Amino acid sequence: MARGQRKDIDGSESVPCFYGKELRFQREEAGLTLEQLVEGSFYGTTYLSEIERGQRRMPPDLARHVDRVLKTDGYFERGCDDVRKARKGGHAEYFADVAEMEKFARTIEEWAPLLVPGLLQTADYARAIVRAGVPRADDAYVQKNVTARLGRATIFRKEEPPAFWAILDESVIRRAVLPPEEMAELLEHIAGVTRATRSLLQIVPTSAVTHPFMMGMAKIMTFADAPPVAYTESLHSGQLIDDPRLVQHYRESYDLLRAVALPPETSLAMVEAAAEDYRNGTQQR
């Protein structure tokens, strides 16, 4: 494609593409550039351009800004939910936005007190977790969810992958969710991905009786062209948090959690030792 030539949008391809095509049409009808439309918001021109191409979600606060500038009477805010539902792609509805955000994140920091983070899971582990959560689901449903979960890890193959930092409770690597051989494969996979992607992994040992994040999992993401967000999850629900003050509170708690956790190399050594124990049948119980 020649420099400066734009790609046409096929609105029939998907709901996000239809939405993005209408956004571009309304922006150009108003005689505005991308820079002019995002002016006064917290988002960058790249973010808006990717929405127009159907590649990225429209956050409600940006939709309200766009409606106000373009005088579109709430059209884009009303359409946000339809686009979000159309982008589920095998993920739970409450997680769909988070899965999409991961693709554009500059940094991803995750606290996992009970389960291995999705970005580090193997197919066997993901299948066991999906089955445990929805025991009556048919095989097609389970496979769709497993495929979607494993597909998230493709972000590590990007030209500029996000900087990933995960902190796991020690119980996560000790809980035998799978048979010993498969648990060994899971832990070797975690260590391998961590080393290959130059990610950081820390373990909060069971000896750490109290710490700042005792109330559940959390994920914090930052972006080059959008405000940071935090995400928390419980059974059958999740909450995406974009209030700057709350995100900062999560940021501070995560920083304190790092201080409680074991150093990265010590943590990796613990994971690899646990994998060997599973293979040898000498795992801790």
UniProtKB/TrEMBL annotation:
Coiled coil, from the record: none
CDD domains named in the record: HTH_XRE
Domain HTH cro/C1-type as annotated: residue spans: 23-76
A Pfam family it matches: DUF5753
InterPro entries linked to this entry: Cro/C1-type_HTH (IPR001387), DUF5753 (IPR043917), Lambda_DNA-bd_dom_sf (IPR010982)
Protein name: Helix-turn-helix transcriptional regulator
